[in-house]
Known about the structure:
It is found in: Cell membrane. InterPro entries: CdaR_GGDEF, dCache_1, Homeodomain-like_sf, HTH_AraC, HTH_AraC-typ_CS, Tscrpt_reg_AraC-type_HTH. Residues 348-375 form a coiled coil. This is Helix-turn-helix domain-containing protein. The protein is α+β, with helices and mostly antiparallel strands. Helices cover 57% and strands 14% of the residues. The strands form three sheets. Strands 3-2-1-6-5-4 form a six-stranded antiparallel beta sheet. The longest helix has 65 residues, at 13-77. The model is unreliable at 1-5 and 614-622 (pLDDT under 50).
Amino acid sequence: MGNQKKPPFHKGLFFTALTSYLIVLLIPVLTGILIYLRTEETISREINRANKALLTQVQQEMDNYVRNIYRISLEIAFNAKLPDFLNRYADIPDSQRYKLVQLIQDFTLYAALSDSVDAFYVYVLSGNYVISNHVYAKAPLFHQMHDFSKDMGYDEWFARLNESHSGEFVRQENGKTVYIQSLPMNSDRSPAGNLVILVNHDKLQELLEGTRWTERGNTYILNSSNETISSSGSAPFRYDVLYEDLLQEQDTLIKEMDGTRVVLSYITSEHTDWKYISVLPYELFMEKAAYVRNLTIGGLLVCFILGIWMAWYFARRNVRPVREIVNLLRNKGEPITGEADNEFHFIRENLSATLEQFQDIRHRLENQKSALRSNFLARVLKGQLESDLPVEDTLASYDVHFPTDRFAVLLIYIEDYHGLFREDLKGDETERLFFVRHILTNIIEELVGVHYIGVMVEVDDMLACLVNSKTGELDPDDLQAIAEEAHRFIAEKFFIHFTGAISRVHEKISGIAAAYQEAVETMEYRIVIGSNRIHRQENTRNHGGEPKKYMYSIQVEQRFINTIKSGEIDEARQVLSTLFKQSREEVNLSVSMAKCLMFDMVGTMIKTLDELDLEQGRSNLPFDDAQMISGLMQSETMQQMEEKMLELLEFVCTHIDAKKQSRNVQLKDEVEQFILTHYSDSNLSISSIAEHFDMNPAYLSRFFKEQSGEGMVDFIHLTRIKEGKKCMENEGLTIAETAEKIGFVNSNSFIRTFKKYEGITPGKYKSIFHIKHEGGTKK
């Protein structure tokens, strides 16, 4: 065990498990980061909202403060006593002193009712005097009496009072703010005076101080001239921001000012050109967000460190049992060699190899069982079982059960299956045939299994379905209907054509062999009754007796040959069709006799083609003699042979007819007539005939054979034999007398020629004729 080498792993399971745990750990970590980002965003939004709310409060209070000043200016401007002093009197007469006192009292009341102003006065341009809420005095004296004379000279002050003002807030050098409004209001003429209201700076400062979040923050009021009207602190607005930069009605900016990052929020007054500005250090503004950030980062850091440790611990703990399994496989088993990614891959490969071995063994056992099952069923069908073999127990071991003892056999012979496969695809015929048999087995077993039990088995290049009744009833008509349904369905869906043979119903397992033999015999009659259909044994049991007569006699054969040689396609087709039709209708025609007929037909075609001089025509044939013979011999049924022979006749007769039509038919008839007239002349020959027609003997001989289908010598001999038969039959002449009469030099020459063409001697023919004639007379 100590010498075993550990299998090499690219990535150990510990590394994989640790990586998986860390990935799982990343989920809450990333979730926490996402939550922090969303929380920071929410806190920032809430801080901005609170800051905006505070600025809105500043705006409302400041605008109320401004509206109060506007209200006082309106009350002063529209006081009923004031216009008399502005418009009539350059110098106040004694008669108007009382009204002046009343006006000052009104001013005093206005000032007392508002805490927004410290004091106010009206400067009358025409008299160069001032009326305030405390005193009436000339302008120079009034200037000396008040504090603003320290920061503003008389000339400057006088010049400002003689200017036109439309309600302006002006910040003075002493830091205080005044409101100046020309009188009368809303007049197109030059002003008669100016109202000056000294804003209560302490009250304004108090309002701004009340809106400060913290001592580190400041609130400013900035006018359009970039002047600081007021601030919550003592310092004016000195940041690198101009009034023109604050374009929105309300906004928040982050700026770098004097090396310090600040948050600048502002809002615009609804009544003046003032901007209310709040300035906070950025770290103070984001103090809560920073707290949440630090808390989140700390928690995530603790979670990450603790998670890494726990991932390492549990990965090591969970991998230990897997490593024990790996060691077990390495020490006790036969581990596969090579490299593996991790322990699981090592286990999977070893387990997969083990399962493959198990499946291979199981597959082999199944194949062996299937082969043994097929072999045993084939032996049952053929009756090749030992007498002491327990058949039913053996069948049960192969999972074959027959509930009753009534059996029949459906035998299947596959005729054609090439329509199932594409012609342009080449494949192994053995594999294709196996696939076709598999299709037939599944479909037939399923159809038979609806009412009966059907077991398919391959026997001698055929498929046999052993049918057993489930209930004891086995109807042959029902079985034929099932077979025909399978025949139709398989032909339509799979383009597979087969011939079926059904046996009779037999009792007990011992009768299975007899049923199979009946099905085989029935299948053999496909030669006679045709293929690609379903046959029953009852329909073929009349065949096989002694036939009444052999249909293909010498005379029929000779007639058939003559029609071919003469190119008469219609007559040749009729002879062939009549012959095959009579053979199929002969109820006692056996399979062996049918095969003899087919061999004779092939021989006739071979002899006929050999006799025909078709050297030129054969070059146009799509097959040679070997192909022709092979094609005819491969005919498995009489129907197939009839079709192939009709196809061959069509070509041969068409060719002969074309050759005959290429010569002078009249000359052929004249030659035949000359022979029929002079056949009794012993000197009659091709040379004498050619001399008579003034033609070359070789050319005439070839011409005659092309036109008639037979040689001229053959025609002469056949004519003489025909006339000789008549002489022997009707005139009763001897052989020598007959030979002399029909043109033969001697009787020996007649005998040789007669036997060559008729197969028997003239004497034998004469004897047969007399025997038949006497037999007919007796009857």
